Amino acid sequence: MCTRLILAGWDIVVLEKSNAPPKGSPTGAGLGIDPLAQQIIQSWLPQPELLQEAILPLTIDQNIVTGGDKSTRILTRDENFNFGAAHWADLHSLLYDALPPEIFLWGHVHLSFCISEDQTSVNVKAKSLQTNEIIEINGDLLIAADGCLSSIRRIFLPDIKLRYSGYCAWRGVLDFSGKESSETIIGIRRLYPDLGNCLYFHLDSGTHSVLYELPKKSSTGFDAAVLGKCLQKWGLENLPSALEEYQSVRVPVISQQVLHSRRLGRIKQGLYLPDRGPFDPSTASPEDGEELQQKNMPFFSGAPISAD
Ligand SMILES: Cc1cc2nc3c(=O)[nH]c(=O)nc-3n(C[C@H](O)[C@H](O)[C@H](O)COP(=O)(O)OP(=O)(O)OC[C@H]3O[C@@H](n4cnc5c(N)ncnc54)[C@H](O)[C@@H]3O)c2cc1C
């Protein structure tokens, strides 16, 4: 979004409480990126071709299940999957390198903000974690991208509490360079022969694993893309219209996607849902597994990026 706003002529300051940009860790998490996200990210990069170098295409979405006798079988297989996988750290450094470094105030924690009486400006207070110095920034707009525990969102929506949706996950990246012929890797490849262009979901009773390969290199932004586009379209003089359009475009999409993800998480964890019995991988039919395919995510093949 910073790139989009800079292109639209805005001056930007990014307050970030971490002390420095994250370094490309070889064990960083992988990210699944759909075609629209790829297109949007590319439009932000001075060298768009670098994104394709960082992404491994995934053309198959497959659910496999372990039966009662511990044998495995394919439940669903979608060979028209159009997705990609990248190292989180690669994506981060591509985006970060596309921005002027001076817009970032690292090691600055947001403390408070105050909106002017005529609602045309906002004053933000932040503290440098290194020196304890308090700084003030005056701006036209404060974008609160401070994560799922956002202290700014809590001010506007004090009654909305976080709740546990019943899904938990462990993530890890296995670097098997130089170990291709090890027993473990040969065993993994035997069980998951399409690893390299397939997103595997391996379902077991009340749990599941997700596996995909990442490009051997070390180095989602629809909300950001739409907000940037709306701000560019309406300009500073029509800020309320820009924010209204952003909300009207994104809220319907995001609510459906979040509800769908929660439902999918509960099914795969074998948890209760009012309209279907618990999912049992050992007896599930391909029809039972139909709902689990990635293509069923609302707006999977594209979400609107403007109200026009
Ligand atoms: C293990 C894991 C795997 C994931 N995999 C995927 C995936 O494959 N695909 C996908 O689309 N999503 C994935 N997600 C979800 C994705 O990471 C989040 O949805 C996304 O990062 C949310 O972005 P955000 O900008 O809202 O918040 P964040 O990425 O959390 O960014 C918030 C930032 O604000 C900073 N901050 C917070 N408070 C303050 C403050 N007071 N002052 C200054 N700075 C502050 C934080 O340091 C942080 O850098 C995954 C998440 C996790 C944890």
UniProtKB/TrEMBL annotation:
Annotated InterPro entries: DHP_3-monooxygenase, FAD/NAD-bd_sf
Protein origin, superkingdom: Eukaryota
Parts of the chain that traverse the membrane: none
Segments of this protein annotated with the region Disordered: 272-308
Protein name, as recorded: FAD-binding domain-containing protein
Organism: Hevea brasiliensis (Para rubber tree)
